[in-house]
Specification:
The complex is a heterodimer of chains A (about 500) and B (about 525).
Chain A (H helix, E strand, L loop, with lengths): L6 H20 L5 H19 L1 H4 L9 E9 L4 E7 L1 H20 L8 H20 L3 H10 L1 H11 L4 H30 L4 H9 L6 H19 L8 H8 L2 H26 L1 H27 L4 H20 L4 H32 L15 H15 L5 H16 L1 H26 L16 H19 L2 H15 L13
Antiparallel strand pairs in A: 1-2
Chain B lengths: L1 H11 L1 H4 L5 H5 L2 H19 L5 H24 L3 E3 L4 E3 L1 H28 L3 H20 L3 H19 L6 H32 L4 H10 L4 H18 L7 H8 L2 H7 L2 H16 L5 H21 L4 H21 L2 H30 L14 H4 L1 H15 L5 H15 L3 H27 L13 H19 L2 H15 L20
Antiparallel strand pairs in B: 1-2
The chains are: A mainly alpha (about 500), B mainly alpha (about 525).
């Protein structure tokens, strides 16, 4: 079978397969086993479909691939326009990769309202993929807002003690920030007559948009605010620890793995793509905020007594690297930012799954409740170690490549940024390894922990793919970077290009 | 008879023929005629029917009346033009609002069946008044003569005054009715005063003519005051701030299905009148009044809704905020603004009538369960009802895939196009804040365990039908907004370029200074 035939509709297929699965699931009787199996089948099917993208992707070209462009509403001129380049390609695959793992990790941990849980999970997947495939600003905003409800409900219904507070905080923070983006999108439509990303980009670049010089800064900020809250960039990060701690494991995995990347993806695609001039002017303070995020996130992570909160703050720190890389406007920095996004999705997703497994057994995330777990749970400890090392940036695992590229980009931009950013690598190994030591080494301090059973079958299937992916990405980053590089190069064309061909290219 | 008269008369008495209504004139008010007839049938039938079983029969007659009204609207749509000496105008605009208000009435009638039984309300007058009120609303949208608009406004208002007092055992309902009546009469007086001043300023009460007169000459201050007074009167009817104070009390006391009607039908009609007045009588100075009222309504409505514990009051304040969003469209440029406002009224009707239908079913006998706490755990005890309400609430927030999203989108899009950046920012911020209180209801339903034992009776067929209509409309508008929007845009064109008057003889021609 020649799968190339699928190319024109593949993006729609990938985007809407989970939604169709979710809608079908509504018709299912409440037999939890069937529902779980069906959700797993759908998410695996979506993953399989998404593998079509890298298989048929022309790595040397920077144009959008697999495009579909159909008029949806004629006035205002809204198009169903989808297409991907090397930037969105891997984020889609990351989403479809993590979702089946989320299904597996929730297999035994969700007992109540199983049907609702998997329906929400699948709807969320559609919305997330849609964000990365849309090339029409309206469509983008449409999917962007659509992610809010399923995520807020996942946190609010299936979360832990303070779930309602966390869900509402998450919802309000991101909702209020994104209305500014809506205002900016409306302005662009009013002055260009189009929602199409490519058209608007060309019009702005050619100076054909009236009043743009005066409004450009505000438009940039409108988009930036929406993305900065999502990332979250310091000082907009306060919703994140709450949301993570209260969310169910699968929710945390998708939240950290994919939802945060919507913010950095948005910066890369829209802030840099549409407003290169303004991005350059604002880069200095954004980079400073990113640096504060890296260091502050790491320091706060270090003192957390709660494992999940620690991982949440480590996300703030890691995402700081991404923003630093993006606004360094160097090839290495952008490649690195993309790579950190993927690596963070895998490793932090893995960490959340692992801490969720522990929570299921002991109903607590407090680090002091554990200690010496390596002897009752050897497989678990080993898996945990791989993921922790990946997250801490050990060479040969995926965290290292991205951070290295980002830092070399930051050095080219301004050495002091590179130096300060590099301390983040040190901090991250301190807080992660210290946490690992307190949880797994030494003697078992609490008697209950002696009887904890090791990873079960489903849990292994959920965690090990992450570990394998972390290793493969660390050894052969070229597989990913070869697609990312041309896209990043195209994104940088409007900027003064700095020759910065570093490793792996 | 009339036909014969109309065809014969011109040959003999050409001068008088124009003074008599022609058959086309009647077709152009056919929906109003049909609705009135059905209203009277309901009233006559009531004493003839059994007290218990007759209720349902009356309901079905009323529903049939509303359906016939929609059919009559189709007939009316085949004969666009002016009628009754340029007092009634059938154009895309009035057809749209006819269909809308009659459809609202139909859904409200459907959702009232089981409410009537539970609350022990006599059905005859209730259904008849809904139909008569609808006549007034429908006529408001097609009237182009200020005095006729006033009469139509009164027809619709008086019905709603009575309807809001229908829970006779409840003191709050009587309070609601009385408050509504007193403040409402006060507001209509403002409107009438505005009409009088407008006549003084231009010598005409015909909207098209006033528009032409004011275009030709510099706008006298008197005309501005007149428009402002009319705006105050209509601002009261749509519940825009600072004329909104009645809304929460009246909504709290009135029967829930009637609140569903009041917050959509008369509002849609009043917005229709407002659209004609603002865009046809183009007095630019009114712009800032609208700007301020829109900003105030959005902000006050949303902020007050944040702290409400009673769902009816919460939705009342939310309706003030929505009136504000709608007024944003009025401040924008005509073509985009009119179509955006029309789309918004239609969407708002679908989601709000639906939301109130759920609330009314849930409230139970004597409207016992209307506080936020009562909704705790509804997602578990009655998942379908909760999911239905959730869809309406998401639409009110403006989440994609629902009509509410496109409605807000078009309004703000029109505002940005007209360079109203600040108003847009106030608007989008408000819609962010507004999300909070709708979300609170969803949180209560899904994320809290119920502490009280709130009984939820099974949903009867008629209510299911009503809810299904609202849901389909809400989601349809959220995915395929095109059809309705296109229609709204075409009718916006007819409003901006009014059809030429046919027989001018009743109008004092001397007052008209032709601009061409």
């Amino acid at each position: 079978m020649n799968t190339e035939n699928l190319s024109p509709i593949i993006l729609s297929l990938i985007t809407f397969t989970p939604l169709a699965g979710g809608l079908l699931l509504m018709l299912f009787p409440r037999r939890d086993r069937d529902i779980r199996i069906f959700a797993l089948v759908i998410s695996l099917l979506t993953f399989a479909l998404s593998l079509h993208l890298p298989a048929h992707f022309h790595r040397e070209h920077a144009e959008f691939r697999f495009e579909i462009d159909k008029a949806w509403v004629s006035t205002p001129n809204i198009h169903y326009h989808m297409g991907i380049d090397g930037i969105s390609l891997w984020l889609i695959v990351l989403t479809t990769f993590l979702t089946p793992l989320c299904v597996l990790i929730s297999w035994n941990s969700i007992h109540e309202r199983v049907k609702e849980f998997f329906i929400l999970l699948l709807i969320l997947e559609t919305a997330l993929i849609g964000v990365f495939t849309s090339l029409d600003l309206f469509l983008f905003y449409f999917f962007w807002e659509s992610t809010l409800i399923p995520m807020a409900l996942l946190i609010g219904i299936f979360g832990h003690e303070r779930k309602v507070y966390a869900a509402v905080k998450f919802f309000m923070y991101t909702m209020i920030a994104s209305v500014f983006m809506l205002a900016a999108i409306l302005w662009l439509y009013a002055h260009t007559g189009s929602f199409d990303f490519v058209t608007i980009r060309e019009q702005i670049a050619s100076g054909a948009v009236s009043h743009f010089p005066a409004a450009g800064q505000w438009l940039f900020l409108g988009f930036f605010l929406a993305f900065a809250v999502k990332v979250p960039l310091f000082p907009f990060h306060t919703w994140l620890p709450d949301a993570h701690v209260e969310a169910p494991t699968a929710g945390s995995v998708l939240l950290a793995g994919v939802l945060l990347k919507m913010g950095t993806y948005g910066m890369l695609r829209f802030n840099l793509g549409l407003f290169p001039e303004q991005a350059r002017q604002n880069a200095w303070w954004i980079m400073i905020l990113a640096l504060i995020g890296i260091i502050y996130g790491a320091l706060v992570a270090m003192v957390q007594p709660n494992m999940k909160k620690l991982i949440a703050y480590s996300s703030v720190s890691h995402l700081g690297f991404v923003v630093l890389g993006i606004f360094s406007f160097t090839q290495a920095g952008l490649n690195g930012a993309m790579f950190v996004m993927l690596a963070h999705g895998i490793s932090t997703g893995g960490l959340f799954m692992l801490s969720g497994i522990l929570h299921e057994r002991r109903h607590t995330y407090e680090i002091s409740e554990f200690g010496g777990l390596a002897s009752p749970m050897p497989v678990y400890a080993a898996s945990y170690l791989v993921i922790v090392l990946a997250s801490a940036g050990l060479p040969l695992l995926n965290g290292f490549i991205g951070e290295f590229l980002v830092l070399s980009g930051a050095f080219q931009s301004r050495p002091i940024y590179g130096i300060l950013g590099a301390t983040g690598v040190i901090w991250s190994s301190i807080y992660l390894l210290w946490m690992y030591q307190r949880v797994f080494y030494g003697k078992v301090t609490h008697a209950v922990n002696n009887s904890l059973h090791d990873l079960s079958g489903f849990e292994k299937w959920a965690v090990w793919p992450c570990a394998v992916a972390a290793l493969v990405m660390g050894v052969a980053p070229i597989l990913w970077l070869s697609a990312i590089d041309p896209a990043v190069q195209a994104a940088l064309t409007p900027f003064v290009r700095v020759a910065s061909r570093v490793v792996g290219q | 008879m009339t036909m014969l008269f109309a065809t014969l008369m011109p040959t003999f008495l050409p001068a008088y023929s124009q003074l008599l209504p022609q058959s086309a004139d009647y077709i152009r008010i056919l929906p109003e005629i049909v609705l009135s007839i059905f209203g009277m049938i309901v009233m006559f039938m009531e004493p003839l029917l059994d007290k218990e079983t007759g209720q349902r029969v009356l309901g079905w007659i009323a529903f049939l009346g509303a359906l016939s009204g929609i059919g009559a609207t189709w007939f009316m749509a085949q004969a666009p033009g002016l009628a009754f000496w340029n007092t009634v105008q059938v154009d895309g605009f009035s057809i749209f609002f006819h269909a809308l208000v009659i459809a609202i009435a139909a859904v409200v009638i459907l959702s009232s069946y089981d409410y009537m039984a539970v609350q022990h309300i006599r059905a005859g007058e209730y259904y008849a008044l809904i139909l008569f009120g609808t006549v007034g609303m429908a006529l408001m949208s097609s009237a182009v003569e200020l005095v006729l608009i006033f009469i139509a406004l009164e027809i619709s208002s008086i019905s709603s005054y009575i309807l809001s007092g229908f829970r006779r055992q409840e003191a709050s309902s009587t309070e609601s009715s009385l408050k509504y009546f007193l403040l409402g009469s006060f507001a209509t007086a403002f409107f009438l005063y505005g009409v009088a001043l407008m006549f003084g300023a231009t010598g005409s009460t015909n909207i098209d003519q006033i528009g032409r007169i004011l275009q030709a000459a510099p706008v006298p201050t008197l005309a501005f005051v007149a428009v402002a007074l009319m705006f105050v009167g209509l601002g009261f009817k749509v519940g825009a701030s600072p004329f909104h104070v009645w809304t929460p009390d009246v909504y709290e006391g009135a029967p829930v299905p009637i609140v569903g009607l009041m917050s959509t039908g008369p509002k849609a009609a009043a917005f229709a009148v407002l659209l004609r007045i603002v865009f046809v009588i183009n007095v630019h100075a009114i712009f800032w009044v609208i700007w301020i009222v829109a900003a105030l309504s959005m902000t006050l409505g949303n902020i007050s809704a944040l702290v409400q514990g009673n769902v009816k009051r919460l939705l009342a304040y939310s309706s003030i905020a929505h009136a504000g969003y709608l007024l944003v469209a009025f401040a924008a440029a005509p073509e985009l603004g009119i179509s955006a406002a029309m789309f918004y009224t239609a969407t708002y009707a679908a989601m709000n009538v639906g939301a109130f239908a759920v609330v009314s079913h849930f409230a139970n006998a004597g409207e016992r369960y209307v506080t936020l706490e009562d909704y705790e755990g509804l997602g578990r005890s009655s998942p379908i009802l909760a999911a239905t309400l959730t869809i309406f609430l998401l639409s009110l927030i403006g989440i994609p895939m629902t009509g509410g999203f496109f409605a807000k989108f078009y309004v703000f899009s029109a505002a940005v196009k007209a360079n109203l950046i600040w108003l847009t920012i106030i608007g989008v911020l408000n819609s962010g804040v507004g999300a909070y209180y709708y979300l609170r209801i969803i949180v209560m339903m899904y994320m809290k365990e119920s502490r009280k034992n709130v009984p939820v009776s099974p949903v009867p067929f008629t209510l299911r039908l009503a809810l299904a209509i609202c849901i389909v409309a809400t989601i349809y508008l959220g995915i395929f907004p095109e059809s309705i929007l296109q229609y709204a845009q075409e009718s916006a064109q007819t409003l901006v370029q009014p059809v030429a008057p046919q027989n001018n003889m009743v109008v004092p021609v001397s007052a008209v200074r032709e601009p061409f």
